[in-house]
């Protein structure tokens, strides 16, 4: 059932498919104890941790495809962002692409836009373009779509989530749509 958010949040967990993240303001010792407890419980149920992805008590690293920086904010993973921007430059330079190609570009943009949701407001015509059929047919991109792609590039420095902000007193969930 639904319960109110605790008033004191010194720690929080996040789950994304097969990734468990534990965030704490208390310090690495608490993080270690909590994650060792979770690891033991999972192992007791036959679930082993993925050692290549396992990090504990870090302030900098990649977490579910975004970068944690100084333990205070998430930002777009630089290599992914570079690939996204390169793809946008290529499409803008060509002035054309297939709906499927633009769909792939928007998928990458949407993942990082989850860090700063108001950025989704920049996309409208690009979504309409991705719904054109046939999806494999290359076609010219209109000025409206080119402007939206340019906006992604111009606003990319603002793709971050500041973890120092006050905790929200509601739980939000999202899906790919």
SSE blueprint:
Blueprint (H helix, E strand, L loop, with lengths): L10 E6 L2 E6 L3 H17 L16 E3 L2 E4 L3 E4 L1 H17 L1 E2 L1 H15 L11 H6 L8 E2 L2 H13 L4 E3 L15
Antiparallel strand pairs: 1-2, 3-4, 4-5, 5-8, 6-7
Give structural notes.
With 177 residues, this protein is of the alpha+beta class. The chain contains five helices and eight strands. It has helices at 28-44, 78-94, 99-113, 125-130, 143-155; strands at 11-16, 19-24, 61-63, 66-69, 73-76, 96-97, 139-140, 160-162. The strands form three sheets. A four-stranded antiparallel beta sheet has the order 3-4-5-8. Strands 1-2 form a two-stranded antiparallel sheet. A two-stranded antiparallel sheet has the order 6-7. It starts with 10 loop residues before the first strand and ends in a 15-residue tail after the last strand. The model has no long low-confidence stretch (mean pLDDT 86).
Would you summarize the structure shown here?
38% of the residues lie in helices and 17% in strands.
In whole angstroms, the N-to-C terminal distance is 25 Å
Structural class: alpha+beta
With strands numbered from the N-terminus, the spatial order across the biggest sheet is 3-4-5-8
Runs in which pLDDT lies below 50 for 5 or more consecutive residues are none
Number of helices: 5
Order of helices and strands: EEHEEEHEHHEHE
Helix content: 25-40%
| Beta strand count | 8
| Mean pLDDT score | 86
Global Rg: 20 Å
Based on CA inertia axes, which overall geometry fits? elongated
Q: Quote the beta fraction.
A: 15-25%
Main sheet makeup: 4 strands, antiparallel
């Amino acid at each position: 059932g639904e319960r109110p958010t605790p008033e004191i949040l010194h720690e929080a967990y996040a789950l994304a498919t097969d990734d468990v993240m534990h965030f704490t303001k208390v310090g690495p010792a608490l993080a270690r104890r909590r994650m060792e407890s979770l690891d033991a419980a999972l192992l007791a149920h036959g679930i082993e941790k993925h050692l290549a992805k396992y990090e504990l008590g870090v302030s900098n690293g990649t977490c579910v495809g975004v970068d944690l920086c100084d333990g205070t904010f998430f930002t777009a993973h630089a290599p992914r962002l570079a690939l996204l921007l390169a793809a946008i430059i290529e499409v803008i330079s060509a002035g054309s692409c297939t709906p499927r190609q633009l769909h792939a570009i928007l998928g990458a943009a949407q993942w990082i836009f989850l860090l700063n949701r108001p950025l989704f407001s920049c996309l409208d015509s690009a979504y309409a373009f991705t719904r054109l059929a046939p999806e494999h047919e290359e076609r010219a991109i209109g000025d409206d779509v080119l402007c939206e792609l340019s906006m992604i590039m111009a606003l990319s420095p603002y793709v971050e989530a500041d973890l120092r902000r006050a905790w929200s007193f509601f739980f939000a969930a999202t899906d790919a749509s």
